[in-house]
Write a structure and sequence with these properties.
The chain is mainly alpha-helical. The protein contains 6 helices and 5 strands; from the N terminus they run E-E-E-H-H-E-E-H-H-H-H. 54% of the residues lie in helices and 11% in strands. Helix 3 packs antiparallel against helix 4 and helix 4 runs antiparallel to helix 5.
């Protein structure tokens, strides 16, 4: 079911949003974000921007404002169309940078990816959404490598004696070969 309801009143189209069980994005960002949720939200923002482009909708109606985007537990974004075009329309890149900088993150969250994203956005004033998607993909790929490296480190820490024996045998063989 669509959260947007339309009805005609006095020869005018009136739109209503069903916002039951939804909260503003600003409040949601204060709950404590993790990397997966933040990257998912950025991708949802990119897809909202793509939707407007693909359907040739006026982007003045897509207001990237954390108080006007509502989120439910499934991260469904609802953007309120502007009636007053005097409202400030922010570019997607600026809005994403603001979200990254203002979000509250989980206590043990490694925030390297936040710094990488903010640096990328600051360095690329004319970035394309595809470039941003590529950076998000690299961040996800590097985090999966970090997980496998930490799993290897756990195995290494569990079996330090085997590693010492291996190193001793290698040193012994090298010494014997050098003497012979």
């Amino acid at each position: 079911q669509s959260p947007l309801l339309a009805e005609s009143k006095m020869n005018k189209e009136v739109f209503y949003y069903n916002i039951t069980n939804k909260t503003s994005l600003r409040k949601y960002l204060n709950l404590g974000m993790d990397k997966d949720t933040m990257l998912y939200m950025i991708r949802k923002l990119i897809s909202a921007d793509d939707f407007f482009e693909e359907n040739e909708l006026d982007k003045r109606y897509l207001l990237f404002d954390a108080d006007l985007i509502l989120v439910d537990k499934e991260l469904t974004f609802i953007t309120v169309p502007a009636v007053n075009h005097g409202m400030i329309v922010k570019p997607l890149r600026i809005f994403i940078r603001e979200l990254l900088a203002s979000a509250v993150y989980e206590e043990n969250e490694n925030l390297d990816y936040v710094g990488r994203l903010i640096s990328f956005i600051n360095a690329n004033k004319n970035m394309s959404k595809q470039e941003l998607e590529n950076v998000l993909g690299m961040i996800e790929a590097s985090s999966s490598q970090t997980v496998s490296e930490s799993q290897q480190a756990e195995v290494t820490e569990e079996t330090p004696a085997e590693i010492k024996v291996t190193n001793v045998e290698t040193v012994s063989n090298s010494v014997e070969n050098a003497v012979a």
